[in-house]
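User: I'm writing a short report section on ligand binding and want a predicted complex to refer to. Could you take this sequence and glutamic acid and write out the structure as tokens? A short remark afterwards would be nice.
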Amino acid sequence: MVLLKYNFGILIKNNLLPMNQKIRVRFAPSPTGSLHLGGARTALYNYAFARHYDGKFILRVEDTDTERSSEDSQRQQLEELRWLGLEWDEGPDIGGEFAPYKQSLRTEYYHRIVKQLFDKGLAYYCFLSDAEIERLREQSRQWQSPYRSLDAKSALARVERGDAYTVRFKLPDEVVRFDVADLVRGDVSLSTEGLTDFVLLRAGGMPVYNFCCVCDDHMMQISHVFRGEEHLPNTLKQLILYHALGWDAPKFGHLSVIVNADRKKLSKRDGAVSVGSFREEGYLAEGILNGIALLGWSHPEAKEIFSLADLIKHFDGKRLGAASAFFDREKMAWTNQEHIKTMDPSNLWRLLQPYVNHLELPSDKDWPMELLKVYQTELVTLSDAADLFEPFSKSHFKICDTVMPIFDWEKTAQLLEAWLECLKTNDSDDFFAEFIARMSKDGIKGKFLFMPLRAAIIGKLQGAEMKSLVTLLPKQELTRRCNLLIEAHNEVS
Ligand code: GLU
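Assistant: Sure. The structure tokens for the complex follow:
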């Protein structure tokens, strides 16, 4: 057995990054769907790490799976990353020293590296059909292609004849073990035992992810790779390739898996887990970032709520945990609410517009700020504003039929009349409290007071707290509503 020691991470763990080591990290999404929370977390950690060490954050599109990749998905993922505020320094849309940053545009380069492997005797043409592979796999999980020992001349003759082929990497005959100091998991041992010679180029010449990833990470001078735990088997293959090509490997950190309440890997089955769906629901980018930052990392001061700038300040790669991270939707919502609470109100008002522009709200210039003084803390997501602010909408006010029984009560008419009078004559800031006090003195209390009043203000018997509503609705509108209630009753009686 050959033992290869890769003491990754030691420098980081002791916070002894050499001054001359350029930090270059990347996020390498496959454009095969939308950006999910797990992907966004990987992007965030790499981004924060780069910014913490004044390094570079690179975006690379890994689209070698031509069937599943799409331009639309790429556009959407880039847009969402940008919306989150995770701006990259080099990428497919902005270029950079190592452009292009999209694997389908780099095939020539990969083919050159394949040639190097052929020259070293570490790659070979394989002419197995899918059915033959299936048969070999059924016979033994530790199968190898019989073409690994075919002489180069015969193989080339078949290629020239036009036979379909893939190119496989030739694993060492001996089992190789890599002892890796993972940035997140500590010592990890990876072995080639039982591994089949893996494909480098598919039929048709398209290279596979593991191979492209190594070529690109090397060429783009990537220093550290933070990615999901599910990539550990890929890391083994990639380490073998680095070794075969005589290249230094980057330092790896495999992030904890994100799980649901059943301790199963978080997936689409757990409902909407894409960044886009949280965004649509009215989550703030800051809320999402803060929420996902805590899925595998902890703040040194045990803070639960922090900004991206604060995360960057502390994100040195040390406080990453290997234990599964539980994704708690309620905690995510709470985190978002805490971020909304501390937002600048005029900024918040701007972000709320798409959710409330169907409402006909009072047009007074100061009104939005007065409204937010009362309601900002109640918004869990931006979309909550639609229901919360609806009582203020002139065009949305309607009298529910269910309110009519209030007119069977002896003192309702008297109360409504007094309310109209109060709106007309009482200019005090406390007019509502004064009105309640007066009614109580007149013996109108409890449900006989509050239900008709609520009907006159919001048109229904249950709902928003009136104390804040009345101060935020112009008196004229309150009067209009009360009159509409009386008219509605007259029509039915
Ligand atoms: N394209 C890979 C993925 O989306 C990235 C793997 C890596 O970071 O090396 O999972």
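A remark for your report: The first helix runs from residue 10 to 13. The radius of gyration is 32 Å.
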